[in-house]
Specification:
Blueprint lengths: L8 E3 L5 E3 L20 E4 L7 E4 L8 H20 L1 E4 L9 E10 L12 E5 L4 E7 L16 E6 L8 H6 L6 E6 H5 L1 H7 L5 E4 H5 L10 E2 L2 E2 L1 E4 L2 E6 L1 H71 L23 E2 L3 H4 L4 E2 L16
Parallel strand pairs: 8-9
Antiparallel strand pairs: 1-2, 3-4, 5-6, 6-7, 7-8, 9-10, 11-15, 12-13, 14-15, 16-17
Length: 364
């Protein structure tokens, strides 16, 4: 930011913030910077914009801080002169309204050791309001303000200039205005909803953290949970009726889930039993098949032995032997699969079986 013609306000000898066009030209203006204390020169020429300039050539003042200090003191003075502000709505629960003050006290000290607010104002009904001005950071305080159990309004001046400040503080509030605390409104939240036939309970976030409901049923604003801050704590507006419905719904869901779980477990148990029975049946069939095969082998072997015992050696033929390779029989010769180990010709005469010690009767 250029601070040439931007310093259109300064502090005069009486401690009042004045506009550059209200004072004499040059150093005769009798004004100084309320931050660094340096004399200011009023520029009111025709070629340049009107504004105050620090007079010293070797000054070490931080112009940004000087600018914010003048803004801060000007904001105090505007409220002191007007004796009213248009307060913002309270979390869209209570509408904004104009606060007219019968008494206004300003601190007029930018950096201080105490925890007092910038403005303390009182309405005709005796209600006291604290007003705190801030910029990007609260440079004017070395300690945080003690605003608990009070009605405290914070106004952010970071987006304003000396030229826009008066209109900003006397027009409708913007997002730069917010309630730090409002015990009056906070204590009336539940009754406010009750008057509109809505059941609402103000609960702290600590209580919310212990809630067993997964999806919070508290009041929402623009799709997000409405969060209220008061006395350093965070609160939500719970809906007891909806909460009870949600609890019953989740209870029914749990019961249904448990039922489905039992049904799945029973189904898995039945499937496991069925598989076990099928496996046992398969093993039994395998065992029976094995026994049948063994019985058949024994029967075949018995028949073979019977035939061998009943036939004469002259009746034996390689063509009736188990080792005969039928598919290789050619020209009346038997082709024995054992001819190498028996050390006999591959083209084996069929009657060799009459003397072969490895002859085994083939049962068709």
């Amino acid at each position: 930011m250029s601070y040439g013609a931007d310093f259109i306000y300064a502090e005069n000898a009486q401690g009042r913030i004045v506009h550059v066009d209200e004072v004499a030209r040059g150093l005769n203006c009798g004004c100084h910077c309320p931050c660094c204390g340096e004399p200011l020169q009023a520029r009111q020429g025709d070629m340049r914009g009107h504004g105050f300039k620090h007079h010293s050539k070797d000054r070490r003042a931080n112009l940004k801080i000087c600018y914010e200090v003048i803004m801060y003191k000007l904001a105090e003075q505007i409220i002191l002169d007007n004796r009213c502000i248009k307060a913002p709505s309270y979390y869209h629960i209570f509408p904004g309204k104009t606060l007219d003050f019968v008494e206004v006290k300003v601190d007029s000290c930018y950096e201080r050791e105490d925890k007092q607010p910038d403005v303390i104002a009182k309405t005709a009904d005796g209600v006291e309001y604290l007003i705190e001005f801030v910029f990007s950071s609260k440079v004017q305080h070395k300690q945080p303000i003690d605003y608990k159990n009070t009605n405290c309004l914070e106004i952010n001046l970071a987006n304003q200039t000396m030229d826009t400040l008066n209109a900003f503080l006397t027009s409708e509030p913007t997002d730069d205005w917010k309630w730090l605390n409002n015990d009056i409104y906070f204590s009336q939240i539940e009754n406010r909803y009750k008057a509109a036939n809505k059941n609402i309970k103000v609960v702290s976030e600590d209580e919310c953290a212990e809630c067993e409901i997964k999806d919070c049923v508290a009041a929402r604003l623009n799709g997000s949970l409405l969060t209220v801050y008061n006395n350093g704590k965070t609160y939500r507006l719970c809906k007891p009726d909806s909460l009870q419905e949600a609890k019953e719904r989740e209870r029914q869901e749990r019961l249904l889930e448990e039922k489905l779980k039992r049904e799945r477990e029973e189904q898995l148990r039945l499937v496991a039993e069925q598989r076990k029975k099928e496996e046992e049946r398969w093993l039994q069939e395998q065992e029976e098949r094995k026994q049948q095969q063994e019985e058949r082998k024994r029967a075949i072997e018995a028949e073979r032995l019977r035939l061998e015992a009943s036939e004469l050696p002259s009746e034996r033929s390689c063509f009736n032997c188990k080792s005969n390779l039928k598919w290789m029989n050619r020209n009346g010769y038997a082709n024995c699969g054992m001819y190498i180990s028996l050390q006999i010709p591959k083209n084996t005469p069929p009657d060799y079986a009459q003397t072969c010690k490895r002859y085994q009767r083939k049962i068709e």
